[in-house]
Design goal:
The structure holds 2 protein chains of 2 kinds.
Chain A: E1 10-15, H1 16-26, E2 31-34, H2 42-52, E3 59-62, H3 66-79, E4 83-88, H4 89-95, H5 99-104, E5 110-115, H6 129-132, E6 140-143, H7 147-161, E7 170-175, E8 183-188, H8 191-198, E9 213-214, H9 224-253, E10 260-263, E11 270-274, H10 278-291, E12 296-301, E13 303-305, H11 309-316, E14 321-326, H12 337-346, E15 353-359, H13 368-383, E16 391-393
Helix pairs in contact in A: 1-2, 1-7, 3-4, 7-9, 10-13
Chain B: E1 15-16, E2 31-35, H1 45-49, E3 55-58, E4 61-64, H2 74-78, E5 84-88
Antiparallel strand pairs in B: 2-5, 3-4
The chains are: A alpha/beta, B alpha+beta.
């Protein structure tokens, strides 16, 4: 497939939400179910507009809760539809019960999550507590940094999910408001290029009255464990498939993706690890640190599940200290979710010290200077062999 | 206990249809429905309401499939002519 030059791509001014809806429209979705009220986003609003304007040929169901939304999407996918839903914060929490159902039944649905804080107190702003709380439910997971990545990950999610060796649901997240409601220039592919790239969904099994099958049966201690073991293999396959999809998508779009987005990491002594829109701020922080003579680099996570262990090993080797930025407080845990992933990926092979910094809860802003201070703290603490403890950036203490 | 290894098993536990037929639940029963055909008016209410599809019919003639009947007693309660009685299962 030939690369489409950027000049042949239409540049549109899109919010993160709109970019996702546009990507889903081009992906040829057959079915959308969504709960239309708070904490919903403009993603499903745009999709309903597309439908009303006859721009997509899909069934759209307004349901009474997010639990019903994802249940309907699972059902549609079992019939063979390319099915999509979007949610946020408490909505994802309400979907939780069905998340392992989707992965256990191996339905390749795609879910866009606008990452926002969990109640209580009520908050509608950016926070990663929603998506990071569901990270172990058998979904392939990506996190986007900006509207362009949100658009691209929409298309790539279907490609990864529907791969015959994966057949797993896939979700990806964008930062609430910071990305979801901010307008950016986004390069969009022609409709026919996306259609050709994804092709028509082919399912392994279908709900079909002429050829009845049993879906979701009882599986007790004699067989349940084996079905879970299959999912582990599917996840491991998803790691390879995700990298293949990043490669094939680059062929089509000219935009390069990898499980980790590394910036000035080759000679870095201190690495800033982050997810979402903060990765961009961290790059500015790293440039400022370099001006001060501190060899700083940034690693932003794109592929959260399956966690890219080989890339993490490669990136962290030679690094003295890592400042891990967590937009979630893992209450009562020795460290946050990113820290636990990183530490277990490199232990005990690498001699690197990591320090956890919780920031930005409930949409609290973070700037490059705060990140710079965290990196300096991590470097000094590593030199002093100080143990990690959960620390906070930007909270009044 | 199954001896199949995980790679030999169906992806996502998608199985052929009607696997429930292989799982006989009749021995769960503590009470046994018996149909008095003198009273039965062949209304098929028991057939329609049995949650386990354990009332079989040929035309309008019904009978209990004791391989699957769990003895819940819904048929006996719902029968308009009290043609179905429940009695304690004995070994």
């Amino acid at each position: 497939m030939a690369t489409i030059q950027r000049t042949k791509q239409e540049m549109m001014e899109l919010t993160g939400d709109h970019a996702i809806a546009y990507g889903a429209k081009q992906s040829g979705i057959d079915f959308v179910a969504a709960y239309p009220i708070t904490p919903q986003t403009i993603i499903v609003e745009k999709l309903s507009e597309y439908l009303a304007d006859g721009m997509i040929d899909a069934k759209y169901v307004n349901v009474e809760s997010e639990h019903s939304a994802i249940s309907a999407v699972i059902g549609a996918a079992l019939v063979g539809a390319r099915a999509f839903t979007a949610t946020s914060s408490q909505g994802l929490a309400l979907m939780f019960e069905e998340l392992p159902v989707a992965s256990g039944m191996r339905v390749p649905i795609v879910l866009a999550n606008v990452m926002r804080a969990l109640s209580a107190p009520i908050n509608i702003h950016c926070d990663h507590s929603d998506i990071l709380s569901v990270r172990d439910q058998g979904w392939v997971m990506m996190i986007a940094e900006n509207a362009q990545e949100a658009y691209d990950q929409t298309i790539m999610s279907f490609k990864i999910a529907e791969d015959p060796s994966v057949q797993l649901p896939t979700m990806y997240g964008i930062d609430g408001f910071i990305i979801s409601h901010s307008m950016e220039n986004v390069y969009t592919l022609p409709d026919e290029v996306v259609s050709e790239y994804l092709g028509v969904r082919r399912s392994l099994y279908k709900l079909d009255v002429d050829n009845p099958m049993t879906f979701g049966p009882l599986a007790l201690f004699d067989v349940y464990f084996e079905f879970r073991r299959q999912q582990h293999d599917a996840m491991m396959n998803a790691y390879e498939v995700a990298k293949e999809v990043f490669g094939s998508f680059e062929q089509v779009s000219g935009r390069k993706y990898s499980p980790l987005k590394n910036y000035m990491t080759d000679d870095a002594e201190v690495l800033i690890f982050a997810a979402g829109s903060t990765v961009g701020t961290a790059r500015l922080a790293a440039r400022k640190l370099r001006e001060e003579g501190i060899k700083a680099g940034v690693s932003g996570v794109t592929l959260l599940r399956p966690f890219p262990v080989p890339e993490v090993m490669e990136t962290l080797s030679g690094v003295k200290a890592v400042a891990v930025l967590e937009r979630m407080l893992s209450l009562g845990s020795p460290a946050g979710p990113h820290y636990m992933d990183l530490a277990s990926a490199v232990y005990p092979q690498l001699d690197v010290r990591m320090y956890d910094f919780v920031y930005g809860l409930g949409g609290r802003d973070i700037d490059a200077d705060m990140i710079g201070r965290a990196a300096k703290t991590a470097l000094a603490d590593a030199q002093n062999k100080r143990p990690n403890e959960v620390r906070f950036l930007g909270v009044r203490e | 206990m199954s001896t199949k290894k995980y790679k030999e098993m169906e992806i996502g536990a998608v199985l052929p249809a009607a696997t429930g037929l292989q799982f006989k639940t009749g021995d769960w029963r503590t009470e046994r429905p018996t149909i008095d055909y003198e009273k039965c008016v062949e209304c098929l209410i028991c057939w329609a309401l049995c949650p386990d599809s354990a009332i079989r019919r040929k035309g309008t003639k019904v009978e209990v499939d004791y391989d699957y009947c769990k003895g819940c007693g819904i048929c006996a309660v719902e029968c308009p002519t009290k043609a179905i009685s429940m009695s304690r299962e004995e070994v």
